[in-house]
UniProtKB/TrEMBL annotation:
It comes from Mus spicilegus. Residues 108-180 form a coiled coil. It comes from the Eukaryota. Belongs to the RWDD1/GIR2 family. This is RWD domain-containing protein 1.
Amino acid sequence: MTDYGEEQRNELEALESIYPDSFTVLSESPPSFTITVTSEAGENDETVQTTLKFTYSEKYPDETPLYEIFSQENLEDNDVSDILKLLALQAEENLGMVMIFTLVTAVQEKLNEIVDQIKTRREEEKKQKEKEAEEAEKKLFHGTPVTIENFLSWKAKFDAELLEIKKKRMKEEEQAGKNKLSGVYGAPCLAWSVLPPHSPHHLPTAEMTGIDFHSNHTYTLHTQFIAAVYAIALFCI
């Protein structure tokens, strides 16, 4: 017949010897105690820690001990849940044998994994921030990237806006009794409006923008170029 009390007393003595600084007896009947488990130091000497509480059942080790997370530091809720699942699994696998040392060792390894995960997550966050900063800098110094399609869409809108400006100007001049455009400000606009599409002075073309319409490459339409085009339009008003 198994002497459960003897097995439990022998294990308690062994645990007190193995964990002299983290083993604390809470009660003798039923035998209850805590063991504090701390991970290895991670980045910036950061650690995670948990204090496990165990209580022997009457027929331990043929029955699993009662266990709980007595306290913890720097652990997320999902980490606590994972530790409890790990304890349940290990307790079932070691049923019939004294198992507290095995359970504590499993938790120790889990805490070390958590510290490594924290380090990896912080490194990924750092890389992501650096990438975002680099992309923002590129956008600032290289202008707004455009494809052929959205450049043509921009050009169509610009042509429409310019046409409305010309119509408004002509209407105002007609109302003022003018029969034709005149003056130093009207001539450049009229000359531009009658130039053939292939003229180098017409609205932006592939040659002017540097866009190869036979290529699938994406080019950059500089904000300086857009500003210059609008400056010409404003000059014509």
